[in-house]
Amino acid sequence: MAIRVLLVDDQPLLRTGFRMILEAEQDLAVVGEAGDGLQALDQVRALQPDVVLMDIRMPRMDGVEATRQITGPGRDGPAKVLVLTTFDLDEYVVEALKAGASGFLLKDAPAHELVQAIRVVAAGEAMLAPSITRRLLDKYAGHLPSGDEPVPDTLHTLTEREVEVLKLVARGLSNAEIAADLFVSETTVKTHVGHVLTKLGLRDRVQAAVYAYESGLVRPGAQ
To answer: Where is the signal peptide (predicted)?
Structure first.
């Protein structure tokens, strides 16, 4: 079945461009559009999309608050949010990820990256292209702790190997890359990631990455 996509952006020309790209794919279907966050909430309730392609800055209600309401408690459907951003709005991306977004994508990304990102998010994965993840994490480094702050007590619930996995997740590595780095199987990595999310009370890999940076476990730019 086709992945149902809702386009949310206050610029009609951008929505038209996204629609043309997505409707050229047999497994994607654009079911609606919205010009602001309030319209997006109405459209999500009415259309039940699988993925919401969400702009950040919009009139009436911005993408951060819309994301929070779409993905938060009492939500009306299983819609996942993929945030669109530009480098000068990185502080808003951080807030959108905290609000429940499943990932983010640069507005000037190639068409094939946009299509692939929607497929990844629809499939239940939270982390998008590692290269984009690393670039954005480094870019909003100024908004994160320096690493001198006390380590949260919850971090001590993790085993040594789980801490290693969390650090690699924060660097944007995929399960396959983590498995190769630690010389274990992908199944083992998935198990470790699951334990990390459960112990820290996190929803997905995106929240795990943000947690690792905010807790000071990983410093922006560190390898």
So the answer is: none
Name the residue among 181, 166, 90 with its Cα closest to residue 135.
Answer: 90
pTM for this one?
0.68
Residues 6+ apart with CB under 8 A from 173: 130, 181
Strand partners, 84: 105
Cα–Cα distance, 39 to 27 (Å, whole number): 25
Average pLDDT of the chain to the nearest whole number: 81
What pLDDT digit, counting tens, does each position of 2-11 carry?
A: 999 999 999 9
Q: How many CB atoms lie within 10 A of CB 92?
A: 20
DSSP lists the bridge partners of residue 118 as none
- Amino acid sitting at position 6: L
The two tokens of residue 34 are: 């919205």
